[in-house]
Write a structure and sequence with these properties.
Structural class: mainly beta
Mean pLDDT: 91
Number of helices: 1
CATH architecture of the largest domain: Sandwich
Strand content: over 45%
CATH class of the largest domain: Mainly Beta
Low-confidence stretches: 160-175
Length: about 300
């Protein structure tokens, strides 16, 4: 079974571009740009020195195309199907979501706008009156990354044990009233760093989040500087209360469920760490004075350069 390609408009309009039952099929001819973004190099030069120094690499906005065949049983049906395409994909309404779903149900999504290709071309070989019509959808995405399905990691109350922290006195004894946990997160196939959202439900007091990079053996912690990152807050969370740490670019914040800002409670480095792409990441959590209803969740979506 081939991949399923769908587009959801900003107002909820839905198109299955691979549903031949409604006369739509994506064509290989004309389709381009779905496999990888283009990268831009920022360089600097110095007088008298050959070549240039690479300062930064960034992914450009996505500019891609989808070949599309529209079929119908009558001229009126063809007109209605094309008009529906034009309406659902109208770019002035806002961003839509292009989704490519694999036969196993997993998928990747691109936030984008369809900006051209449906104006019409009646040249010979591109249409037949009342029966079929070819289009080339031009797709633009300011964020070039395809996002995988959401992954959620949960941490609950711990059994009594010892927790080792690079920033707190070691060892630190933990009782069963603490949430502690450790999970290895594999983002080796991701093409860019992964930033997600932490949601912490109280009661609890003091939050510590740690990320360690593992060496290729999948067991040994990378000892190099920067491989271990810690984020810490002295926040107190009441029973049933929530705090949210959003680490995504453009959304970074630390707030209570009612919107109250909590950055003043952060200890040390205010910027939360990301999962490093191409590596196995070990994630550890500590929440003290936790009650029966307390829990910690981390939700993220890996980023890929293409489908």
């Amino acid at each position: 079974m081939p991949d399923r390609i769908t587009f959801t408009g900003p107002d909820g309009g839905f198109l299955d571009l691979t549903d031949e039952g409604v006369g739509l099929r994506v064509l290989a001819e004309g389709t381009r740009g779905l496999r990888s973004p283009a990268y831009r190099l920022a360089t600097s030069r110095q007088a008298g020195i050959d070549g240039a120094r690479l300062d930064a690499i960034t992914a450009d906005e996505a500019d891609m195309a989808l070949g599309l065949l529209v079929r119908a049983d009558s001229e009126d049906q063809l007109r209605a199907r094309v008009q529906n395409l034009v309406h659902v994909t109208r770019p002035k309404a806002g961003d839509g979501v292009l989704r490519v779903q694999r036969p196993d149900g997993t998928g990747r999504e691109l936030t984008c706008r369809i900006v051209d290709g449906l104006a019409g071309n009646e040249d010979k070989g591109t249409s037949a009156p009342g029966r079929w019509w070819r289009a080339l959808l031009k797709v633009w995405a300011g964020d070039p990354w395809w996002y995988g399905d959401q992954v959620t990691i949960g941490f609950g109350l711990a059994a009594p044990s010892v927790f080792l922290s690079p920033t707190l006195p070691m060892p630190r004894a933990l009782s069963s009233s603490s949430i502690q946990g450790q999970q290895d997160v594999d983002v080796q196939l991701a093409d860019d760093e992964v930033r997600g959202v932490w949601t912490v439900t109280g009661p609890g007091n003091g939050l510590l989040l740690r990320r360690e990079l593992l060496l290729p053996d999948g067991v040994t912690v990378d000892p190099r500087p920067g491989a271990t990152r810690v984020w810490q807050s002295s926040v107190a969370i009441p029973d049933g209360g929530t705090v949210v740490l959003d680490t995504r670019r453009g959304f970074q914040s630390f707030r209570r469920g009612d919107g109250t800002r909590l950055m003043s409670t952060v200890i040390g480095e205010p910027r939360a760490w990301a999962l490093t792409d191409g590596r196995r990441n070990r994630v550890s959590v500590l929440l003290g004075d936790a009650g029966a209803g307390a829990n910690v969740q981390y939700a993220y979506r890996p980023k890929f350069g293409g489908i």
